[in-house]
């Protein structure tokens, strides 16, 4: 590899595989760009170092206790005929509990993304978080989305996909987001007891197919994965009973003689489970409680359809909006040969020539743009809500993709004229704040390396001030792409 090729590879390693180069990163990566990426995957994934971050079970236990208070308050207010006060109590208490939890999670995540020495690992972590998307616009997820990334995703990013899949699908954030915690089989013990009692105040019970559908459509096989509506329904029956201890159904459960479990912790409620063997995608699964759903996930994890679906997403995320077929094939084969061992798949991604062939092929999402700007300039991260402002201003609020499909991952979704104007305006604000403390002329080659064009270099050199030069750097085509 020539010196020019090495310089280009270093820029690709830091800016495509990572979260944007910091001064000095290209020099470190230049010795052996592929090895630099591989080293980042070695060892235990880091734990976010922030004492304010609490387990999701603690947050849910507090929420359950607060919900009980709201219910008692509602009864009291109804007796006092204070209907408006009832609405206010329910509408504000839980969000007031969840918002500080969300802010602590986002600030810790942002801080780690900007400061990490393992940006490739962090990009992979956030890729998986978006793959298994939950969205905080559903209020119950507001205090749990960040914890799901910490508890279910970060520990398994360098392990086997099955372990990652199992951890995510059992996490309270996913179960609540897709309403599986209250999914009850029509022939389950609880359904039979409820039918016999037939109380008018009992809520309607039944199977919820949301989680089963999204596992098949988004998390594993893909929308063209060959499953049918019957498979969705059968899978939903197999994972009925996958729930959370201590949810607000506990009083109802007590009346039906069912244990409510430990608040905030995954619980298989056998009394909710639809009994009987299941047949899904041509395979039979015996009636063995929680293991029935686990067995289905185990087969889905190593399915060729899953391998191709996720390999395509990885190739699209890291290399090009239109993924090179040869790269997708390489990743798919690595997935199947290793039985979904993720480091093997990542190694295939790093080693593939397609990953290095076309620099600046990907347009940065708003989050990528913010991370790379902060890393490049050493911008201090503000506390509290101010930490959210860059993401909100550019249109990608953290952990709020708006649907289980996650944030889109192609240029067409992010490079409209309005979005570009917002980036330029934000770049100017950042440059004004930094003043003349940084020399963009010196920074540009250290951040962009061999991808820096003569036009951008000349424009920065001719800037009328240090502030304008910095704006031109952040607004340059090279800096907006990776």
Give a written overview of the molecule.
The chain is about 60% helix and about 0% strand. It has 25 helices and four strands. The protein has a two-stranded antiparallel sheet with strand order 1-2. Strands 3-4 form a two-stranded antiparallel sheet. Strand 3 and strand 4 (about 285) form a beta hairpin. The radius of gyration is 25 Å and the shape is globular.
Question: What's the short story on this structure?
Answer:
The protein has 482 residues and is mostly helical. It has 25 helices and four strands. The strands form two sheets. Strands 1-2 form a two-stranded antiparallel ribbon. A two-stranded antiparallel sheet has the order 3-4.
Q: What order do the helices and strands come in, and which of them pair?
A:
Blueprint lengths: L2 H15 L7 H6 L2 H8 L15 H24 L3 H33 L3 H13 L13 H9 L7 H9 L2 H6 L11 H9 L12 H10 L9 H10 L3 E3 L5 H6 L10 E3 L9 E3 L2 E3 L4 H12 L2 H15 L6 H14 L3 H10 L2 H4 L8 H12 L11 H6 L22 H18 L5 H9 L5 H8 L4 H9 L2 H4 L2
Antiparallel strand pairs: 1-2, 3-4
Helix pairs in contact: 1-3, 4-5, 5-19, 8-14, 11-12, 15-16, 16-17, 21-24, 23-24
Widest β-sheet, arrangement of strands: 1-2
Q: Helicity level, as a percent range?
A: 55-70%
SS class: mainly alpha
Number of strands: 4
Radius of gyration: 25 Å
Assess the beta-strand content as a share of residues.
Answer: under 5%
Q: Terminal Cα separation, in Å?
A: 21 Å
């Amino acid at each position: 590899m020539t010196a020019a090729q090495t310089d280009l590879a270093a820029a690709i390693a830091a800016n495509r595989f990572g979260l944007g180069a910091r001064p000095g990163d290209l020099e470190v990566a230049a010795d052996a760009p592929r090895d630099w990426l591989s080293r980042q995957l070695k060892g235990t994934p880091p734990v976010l170092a922030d004492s304010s971050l609490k387990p999701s079970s603690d947050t849910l236990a507090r929420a359950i206790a607060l919900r009980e208070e709201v219910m008692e308050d509602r009864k009291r207010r109804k007796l006092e005929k204070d209907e408006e006060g009832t609405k206010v109590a329910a509408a504000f208490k839980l969000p007031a509990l969840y918002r500080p939890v969300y802010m602590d999670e986002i600030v810790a995540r942002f801080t780690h993304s900007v400061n990490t020495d393992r940006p490739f690992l962090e990009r992979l972590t956030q890729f998986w978080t978006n793959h298994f998307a939950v969205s905080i616009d559903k209020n119950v997820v507001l205090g749990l989305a960040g914890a799901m990334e910490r508890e279910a995703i970060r520990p398994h990013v360098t392990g086997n996909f099955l372990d990652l899949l199992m951890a995510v699908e059992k996490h309270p954030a996913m179960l609540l987001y897709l309403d599986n915690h209250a999914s009850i089989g029509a022939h389950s013990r609880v359904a039979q007891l409820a039918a016999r009692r037939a109380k008018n105040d009992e809520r309607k019970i039944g199977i919820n197919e949301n989680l089963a559908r999204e596992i098949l459509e988004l998390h594993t096989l893909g929308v063209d994965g060959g499953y049918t509506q019957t498979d969705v329904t059968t899978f939903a029956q197999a994972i009925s009973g996958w729930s959370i201890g201590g949810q607000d159904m506990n009083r109802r459960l007590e009346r039906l003689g069912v244990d409510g479990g430990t608040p905030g912790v995954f619980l298989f409620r056998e009394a909710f489970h639809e009994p009987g063997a299941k047949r899904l995608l041509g395979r039979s699964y015996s009636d063995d409680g929680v293991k029935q759903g686990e067995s289905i996930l185990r087969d889905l994890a190593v399915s060729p359809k899953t391998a191709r679906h996720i390999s395509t997403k990885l190739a699209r995320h890291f290399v090009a909006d239109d993924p090179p077929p040869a790269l997708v094939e390489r990743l798919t084969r690595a997935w199947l040969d290793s039985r979904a061992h993720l480091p093997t798949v990542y190694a295939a991604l790093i080693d593939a020539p397609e990953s290095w062939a076309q620099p600046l092929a990907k347009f940065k999402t708003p989050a990528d743009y913010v991370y790379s700007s902060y890393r490049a300039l050493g911008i201090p991260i503000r506390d509290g809500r101010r930490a959210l402002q860059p993401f909100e201003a550019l249109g990608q609020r953290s952990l709020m993709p708006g649907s289980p499909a996650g944030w889109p991952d192609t240029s067409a979704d992010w490079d409209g004229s309005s979005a570009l104007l917002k980036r330029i305006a934000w770049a100017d604000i950042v440059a004004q704040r930094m003043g003349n403390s940084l020399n963009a002329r010196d920074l540009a080659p250290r951040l962009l390396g061999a991808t820096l064009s003569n036009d951008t270099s000349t424009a920065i050199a001719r800037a009328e001030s240090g502030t304008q030069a910095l704006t031109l750097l952040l607004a340059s085509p090279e800096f907006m792409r990776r």
